[in-house]
Structures are given as C-alpha cells and as structure tokens.
Write a structure and sequence with these properties.
single chain; Nitrilase/N-carbamoyl-D-aminoacid amidohydrolase; 8-stranded mixed sheet; 521 residues; alpha/beta; 2 domains; 6-stranded mixed sheet; 16 helices
C-alpha cells in the first residue's frame, strides 16, 4: 500500500500526464492507518506511522529526487523532514479519529493537512514544492478559481475527493453497498469545480495594456562556465556581451522590458557604489542605446554595515566589518538609477540557516550546497517601475509561493517577471515543474508571466495560465513576446491564503478538543 500511494502520486505529479490520480493517491495511506487502527498487533501505532512515513518518503523521492544534483545533503534533509511532516499530519488524524470517531477524524484531517501546507509556506523550514494544489500546474483550465483560493483550494479539492473515495472503498471492502447519494456526491465534487473552472476559462478576457518584452536564455553552464573558479569560466564582461547580443537580436523600438536570468552577474556588487563596477557601466551603455527599455537582471550584491551587524545573516571580515550578501534583482529603469531587490524566500539549508540559534552550528558544519551563513533578505515586496508599468521581480524559488507573489501585485505590479537558473537540476523534471508552477501564479493574480532562465525553460504565460512561448532546455536563445499588463486585483491578491489561515485555526481547535475530550471520558 505504501508503494502504491507513492507511485500514484508520482504518476499524477507534473510533468506526468495522469493528473487525475491525485484524487486517489491518498486512499492507500488512509487504508494503512485503518488497517493498524483495527489491528491487535503490538505497537500498531508505530507500525502505522512507519508504513505511512515510507509512503511519503517514496513519494517525495520519486517526485523531487533531482534536488540531489544541486545539493546532495540538502536533498537528503528535504526528503527526511518533508516526509516526516506529512506523516505527522496523518498521526494527528489518527489521534483525533481514536478519540472523536472516524467522521470527525476525517474532517480534522482536511484542516490538519491544509494547516500544515500553510505553515510550510511560511516558516523557516519552508518547502512547499509538493503543495497538493501545485499538482494541477499543467492544467490551469481545471483550476481557474485559484484567483479566489490559491493553490490551497486545489489541495482542499484533492483531499475531499480522496476522502470520499476512501469511504466508498472501505464500504466495498467490508461488503456493504455504496449508497447512491455518496457516489453522486463524489461525482458532483469532481465535476462541479471542473465545470466552474472551464466556464471561467472560456469566458475570461485578458485585461490591461500590451507590453513588448524580451527574455533571454544564455545557457551558461553553472558547473563549468558561470562562476569564478569553474573549469571553463567565461569572464563577466564576455557573459554580458552574450546577454546584450541575445537581447538585441529580438529587441525593437517598442520593447519596454528586457529580462536577464538569476545571478546573471555574480560579481558581488557593493550596493552603495554600483556605478564603480565596469560591468554595471557596460549595462548602462546598453541601456542608453535603447532609452525606452527597462532591464531586470540577477546579480550577487552586498551591503557593508561596519562595526555592528544589522541582521541575523550578517557575516564579518576584518577589513570591512559586518556585511550581508544577497541574491539580488537589479533593475535599471528610465532614470538609469540601479535599484535592488533582495530575494526573500530562500531555500532552507542552501540559501538560509533555519532557526539559526538552534540549528546554525549544525548546518554550518554540513555542506548543503549553499553560501555559509545564508543570504540576507528584505521585508518588503519591491515593485520595479518601468516607463509605463510596474513589474514583480520574482527570483527562482520565490515563484512557487502564491501569497508571496500576490504581495508584489498588491503593491502595484502589473506583470510577473521570473528570473531563475534551473541548470543546477540538469535535464530532469525539476526545471519542468518549476516552469509549470508559474502558470498557477498567473491564474492566482491574473497577471502575465515573463520568465528568463539561464537555462531551463524561458517563455511567456498569459493571464489564464496558457503558455504563449517557451524555450527548450539547454539551448541558447532569446524571445520577444507581447503580454497584457493588468491593474485589477483578484480576491486572492487582496486576501492571500485565507483558506490556510482558517484551516490552521480549526486544526488547532480540533486537536485541542481531542485532548480535552480524552480527559473527560
């Protein structure tokens, strides 16, 4: 049963074509729990937990094994802990079921799982790659109502159908007839959201003004060419010449935005003196040839604080004092003034040290594939203003966070610009999943997406989540596209993951009630 659940989940997850299996993959997990709940064997609870943990471990392994290409230590930690968190959610269901009954337990399971996903989007060990609602990324026409619920609405849909199917499976297993109303309710639960979504999809008209944009995919190998010290390092000025050449191949006088990928310039720019760098001057010369154009590019930057640290991520060198390093989006707009945005959703372990007071000394002794001490980040979601429109600079990992992306839009962004470097994962499902998830961000915010990857998949996505153009992996190319920049705000943009907040609240109440009920029995 554990292997069956894992294989069903793997076959259902992007970029495999069997998405409807999401509606049944949880049934074997519930069947395992039920088997041991009715068993008289010793340590039935422990055995149930271990088999369920194995199911989630295999599911995580099959869908996200490719993380090991970028960081083996990080991949192992991710697999162990993410699977553990999922198994603990089911243990909470088991506890509640034992004290309140199966129906109440299944209701609680929905709250527990959604509450877990909400927590996983917002705490320091955040890894929401496998948020269940992301499973519909290849089919945005199925979930147009994400503009109200976000991806957690998809998670709710999946959980409810799995519970209905499990209840029918259990009745059939026990030799009981399945009530017709149960089958009708399950069918309605599948078809009604689909029907609503298809109606919204077919009736949706893109809003806003056209924006001509160019994205590039320079295809520089991060393992051998991209960074100082690699075997075939390409000097930064030569890399920039490639970026400019690719850009100008597609640019016209009407081009308003040009996107270069994450860490396009790994120079270590001092943000207090950006004009002192010849690479920045090289970019400004390119900008002056195209005065109507605004540029977003990824850089590595730093801020020097001096004698006193100003953040928990500050590091120290005798010559400069305390300073922070950032994975940065650099914007050069109409006034040619460099503006910086610091990536703020950081990969735990590889880019940030979660719970630094507790785990810092441990993680710093383990190579998780990142920068020692972690990158700095910022609190505000900065919107870059071009000549006519504002853009959201979404850097790599940030683009899998719906509510986080919505904060850019709430601050005035009219289009989403994703810059990334997906070459770390090589030619695996990693870069393909990452691209597909961007389609959900388009639906949630009703904003178009322009995406520039060093390599991976670059392209354009419209407000319905449809792919307008896309590149192929490991190709050097550039693309010009016209997308519709909109100013209207969706319910989800205004209210964020309200579904997750409600679920988390009810989860705590039901868990507390289960404890109290135990004491009163």
């Amino acid at each position: 049963m554990a292997a069956l659940s894992a294989v069903l989940f793997w076959l259902a997850w992007p970029t495999h074509p069997l998405t409807p299996l999401l509606f049944v993959f949880f049934v074997p997990v519930l069947a395992i729990e039920d088997h041991y709940a009715e068993s008289d064997t010793k340590r039935a609870g422990l055995k149930s937990f271990l088999w369920i943990y194995l199911a989630f471990l295999l599911g995580n392994l099959l869908t996200t094994w490719w993380v090991a290409y970028a960081t083996l230590g990080g991949a192992i930690a991710m697999l162990i802990f993410n699977s553990l968190f999922m198994a603990l959610v089911v243990q909470c269901y088991r506890f509640t079921k034992k004290r309140l009954g199966e129906k109440q337990g299944l209701i609680a399971l929905v709250f527990y799982w959604l509450g877990f996903e909400y927590l996983h989007l917002n705490w320091e060990l955040s890894w929401p790659w496998l948020t269940l609602g992301n499973g519909f990324a290849m089919h945005p026409a199925w979930v147009q109502w994400y503009e109200y619920t976000g991806a957690l609405g998809g998670s709710l849909w999946i959980l409810l159908i799995n519970i209905f199917v499990y209840r029918m499976y259990k009745r059939r297993r026990d030799g009981s007839a399945i009530p017709r109303q149960t089958m009708l309710a399950c069918a309605l639960l599948v078809l009604a959201p689909l029907g609503l979504s298809f109606t919204m999809y077919l009736g949706y008209q893109e809003k806003g003004e056209p924006v001509n944009t160019v994205v590039i995919q320079p295809n520089i190998d991060p393992y051998t060419e991209k960074f100082v010290g690699t075997e075939k390092f390409i000097p930064f000025k030569e890399q920039i010449r490639r970026f400019i050449k690719l850009s100008e191949e597609k640019m016209t006088d009407s081009t308003l935005f040009v996107l270069w990928p994450e860490t396009a310039i790994d120079k270590g720019i001092n943000e207090s003196q950006p004009l002192a760098y010849s690479e920045i001057q090289q970019i400004l010369a390119f900008k002056r040839r195209h005065p109507n154009m605004s540029l977003l590019t990824g850089v590595t930057s730093h801020i020097i604080y001096g004698k006193k640290p100003k953040s928990t991520t500050s590091r120290f060198q005798k010559k400069v004092g305390y300073y922070d390093v950032f994975n940065t989006g650099l914007f050069i707009g109409p006034d040619e003034k460099p503006i910086f945005y610091h990536k703020s959703k950081l990969v735990p372990g590889a880019e940030s040290v979660p719970f630094p007071k507790v785990l810092g000394w441990i993680l710093k002794s383990i190579d998780l594939g990142g920068t020692l001490g972690g990158y700095g980040k910022q609190d505000e979601r900065t919107v870059f203003e071009g000549a006519q429109f504002g853009i959201a600079p979404s850097i790599c990992y940030e683009s899998i966070y719906g509510d986080f992306t919505g904060r850019f839009v709430d601050n005035g962004a009219q289009m989403i610009c994703i810059i990334t470097n997906d070459a770390w994962w090589r030619n695996t499902d990693g870069h393909r999943q990452h691209f597909q998830y961007a389609r959900l961000r388009a639906v949630e915010t009703r904003r178009p997406v322009a995406r520039s990857a060093n390599t991976g998949i670059s392209g354009f996505i419209d407000q319905r989540g449809d792919v307008l153009q896309r590149s192929e992996f490991w190709t050097q190319t550039s693309m010009a596209g016209t997308v519709m920049a909109s100013s209207e705000k969706t319910y989800y943009v205004k209210h964020g993951d309200i579904l997750g907040r409600i679920a988390a609240g009810f989860a705590l109440l039901m868990l507390l009630f289960a404890f109290v009920r135990k004491k009163t029995l």
